[in-house]
TrEMBL record:
UniProt name for this protein: Peptide ABC transporter ATP-binding protein
Annotated PANTHER family: ABC TRANSPORTER, ATP-BINDING PROTEIN, TRANSPORT ATP-BINDING PROTEIN
Domain ABC transporter, chain residue ranges per copy: 13-262
Species this chain originates from: Paenibacillus odorifer
UniProt entry keywords in alphabetical sequence: ATP-binding, Nucleotide-binding, Transport
Presence of the UniProt keyword Nucleotide-binding in the record: yes
Family: Belongs to the ABC transporter superfamily.
Superkingdom to which the source organism belongs: Bacteria
GO molecular function, one term: ATP binding
Amino acid sequence: MTMTVQQPRRPLLEVKGVKKYFPVKSPLGATLQQVRAVNDISFNMYEGETFGVVGESGCGKSTMGRTILRLTEPTEGQAIFQNKDLFGLSEREMKPMRQQLQMVFQDPYSSLNPRKRIGATLEEPMIIHRMGNKRERTDKVMEILQKVGMNADQYYRYPHEFSGGQRQRIGLARALVMNPKLIICDEPVSALDVSIQSQIINLMQQLQRELKLTFLFIAHDISVVRHISDRIGVMYLGQMVEQAPTDKLIRTPLHPYTQALLSAVPATKPNEVRERVILKGDLPSPLNPPAGCIFHTRCPYVMDRCKTEAPLNKEVTEGHFVSCHLH
């Protein structure tokens, strides 16, 4: 009797040791310091899943997403997509890869050209990549507009004629016209009303099932991230301090920072009592991060070794990684 050995899933995207530092220069041009916006981040993403990244404002989430797509050039590391290191490609080699990698931005209005009709904006990526003729491009845009819940006649309107929720649907449509494999969503619902947020998230989940999309979903609201994500990574001061499947992270958060984020989510069940974790102090500056564990200046469980020794990123249980001396 022969036994079938199950092969491990191959990641669609492997992010390895990615760093992005921004130089702080003197008036004469000399580099004085470096802002460590993203500091040695690693994770994998698998086809068809949503990987959520959560953390407070200024922790480097958006910079990480833009760096992976090379909208800002990386300082160090690798982003391996379909067996190709994106960071090692020339601009010419990177161009066809951009058809597979798209982004939805936080502010839908500033990411749309106010002088262009929506139809022209959505057709522009296809013109750049020489996809189809005029008729085929128009038909494709009409089809995508209907997929995201818009009417075909809105093809001829300008961005200022739409509400915030409609503009975000247009931003999503612009990403979809290229038939991508991976879409990076940079806080796509943070500027919207709560009722509109749920509509956009439900739409994204529906499109993911229909089109077999993979999402990197960046947000600062962990209650939104837990609703849409299969796995979650928690970022603090440019580093990923915890990663786990969503259910496991919500049920048993290991890092004190994750515990604090979850304690801030309002209770949704009657008689549900949560212990509120209050973090003392302000977020340290990425210009001068603390020695040892980057979280020790605000951690309620700080030990002496935390102040001098940086914790390793360890797999505590299957698929649950944490950087903390408590584990």
